[in-house]
Amino acid sequence: RTQAEMAHTCRGTINLSTAHIDTEDSCNIVLSNGGRTYHLKANSEVERQRWVTALELAKAKAIRMRNNQSDDSGDEEPASQSDKSELHGTLKTLSSKLEDLSTCNDLIAKHGAALQRSLSELENLKLPAESGEKIKAVNERATLFRITSNAMINACRDFLDLAETHSRKWQRALQYEREQRIRLEETIEQLAKQHNSLERACRGAPGLSSSSTGVTSTAKGSVQSAKGEASDEDEETEYFDAMEDAPAFITVTADPKHHRRSGSNLSGASEGHPEDWNLEDSVFESSNQSSYNESTCKDLLPKKRRRTRIPDKPNYSLNLWSIMKNCIGKELSKIPMPVNFNEPLSMLQRLTEDLEYHELLDKAVKCESSTEQMCFVAAFSVSSYSTTVHRTAKPFNPLLGETYELDRLEELGFRSLCEQVSHHPPAAAHHVYSKRGWTLWQEITIASKFRGKYLSIMPLGTIHLEFHSSGNHYVWRKVTSTVHNIIVGKLWIDQSGEIEIVNHKSKDKCQLKFTPYSYFSRDVPRKVTGVVSDADGKAHYVMSGTWDEKMECSKIVQSSHGSTSTEGKQKTVYQTLSPKVLWKKYPLPENAENMYFFSDLALTLNEPEERVAPTDSRLRPDQRLMESGRWDEANVEKQRLEEKQRAVRRRREAEAVEALEEGKDYEGYIPLWFERKVDAVTGELICVYKGGYWEAKDKQDWSTCPDIF
């Protein structure tokens, strides 16, 4: 591998001298070496054979290079002068000590010979028999002593010879490690430069669509590099060829004017009537909006004037790798992070941001059909991710007992309350009441892992939504968020996984699939697809769109079984009417790129308000200092708050030990506004709102609130 080749490495490297080269079929090649595997794909069998031959020749060359480096032929690259001086100094010291030992050995031999001569003379004297035997024994011991000292000197000489023999190997090993380090640094630097130049070229390109098409076609060359990694929990990394994930169904738009039923080949098909798709009388009509400024949004304009901007984000430089290199494999919430990686909002405020498109639930209240209502709930569940597409900064971890309220009862019809109910693991409880006919509650625990190249964020917990008039109770979970390019390049976020929304009253279901991004895929990025079906499994609507832009709903007219896929699964073909837009993302405010890409709602979340609880996130000093651009002071304040929280936790742990020694029960931390109950629908233990907060706010009685700031 030359330096130029290393500079263009984008997926990693593999040692060919110990690699196994196998062929799966006529076009696929498998390279494996220990825990790392690459799956490569050629365009034809002839091209695959050419690659296999080239790889075998490269492997033979790598083996020869390894063997040449392992002997003492002296043809290795010379080590640096400092390394030579250090090794020669060590050998010189060993030689000096060996000379001292040799001198001592000569003296021992000399004095030992003199001692033996004296003993021999004593033996020749006429002494009693007993004295003669003792002198003889002493003579034998003196001989053994001389032999032992000679053996020690010989062992020391052998050690010095061995050190001199292996000195070149030591030099080579040290030089190799230094070169590997320099090569890695140069590779990362090259990748960063290439990424920045590509970004500049992309921004300066006159035709972005044609340019990106050309890049895609070029990338799909003779042998395609693989995509993605294996499971997060697996330390071994395996790369696979970029295969497009085939959808489970096919949608065909039908013309309602010319639609006719034809049952000849629609065995087991579910059918609908086009006349049911009456836009004039349907709630869907009010959802077919094109922008934030249209008529349906006029009712959402706040009566109270709220801020529309915050101070611009300072341009502070920070070496990310110097902090993150010691964090690989650790829980993100346990890593001390400076505010440079944060945005001036807490996790409680980010959770409240899910309500930005609450009007979808207001419209769902008016639906007479539960499956139609499910479409709006599905669109709402997807809309909560629209704010994350540019938001790569990390929200502040809430302190235990921290709260956040958003009282928009008079303006938007709802009021929201969040509380941090656990610190390790971090968990937040959320309750929203709307006077327009719905209630939402959830308890979310964030599990996150830093994997070196990317960061996985897994929200754990269920979201509950209940409509007051119908009693429909919907439950779903969030998907996994992944932050890419943690080390090199521009950060970007992807959402992947599946959401199953269940109406526990009517048993309707909606299966939504968030397709992970693939460079080689022809699909639209950030794609979301799904089907709404009733309790009998009959499909009624097809959901489609992207989680960062819009969601559409198409009414199914007919469904039939299509052709069988290559995986042996039979696809379902849905004939649908024209899609209707249920949700479309609001445009970002002006200068959003300098305000952390905050939406209009996000800009107001940390706006100071009176009469809030003393534990409210708006009153958190480090977060307020960061928003003002005083990051150095914010870092100092953040450390103070975290140390204060650690002291409280240590005191609580000591109280628990004391109670255990006395045989008493210790309840630990008890949330102030929420309580743990077994959910009647799911059977899970969840924190639900127990009441009292808004009453305390009316009275301004915050005596029960802890001092956390």
TrEMBL record:
Compositional bias of kind Polar residues: 284-295
Report keywords, A-Z.
Coiled coil, Lipid transport, Lipid-binding, Membrane, Phosphoprotein, Transport
One GO-annotated biological process of the protein: lipid transport
Q: Would you say which domain of life the source belongs to?
A: Eukaryota
**PH domain location, by residue?**
1-60
Segments forming a coiled coil: 174-201
Q: Where is the composition biased (Low complexity)?
A: 207-222
Q: What is its main location?
A: membrane
Any idea where this protein resides? Answer: Membrane
Ranges where the record places region Disordered: 65-87, 202-237, 254-308
State a GO cellular component annotated for this protein.
cytosol
Q: Name one Pfam family in it.
A: Oxysterol_BP
The answer to keyword Iron-sulfur applying to this record is no
Entry's Gene Ontology molecular function annotations: cholesterol binding
Q: Is Secreted found in the keyword set?
A: no
Per UniProt, what is the membrane topology?
Peripheral membrane protein
Similarity field: Belongs to the OSBP family.
Q: What is this protein called?
A: Oxysterol-binding protein
Species this protein is from? Oceanodroma tethys
Q: What gene name is given for the protein in this entry?
A: Osbp2
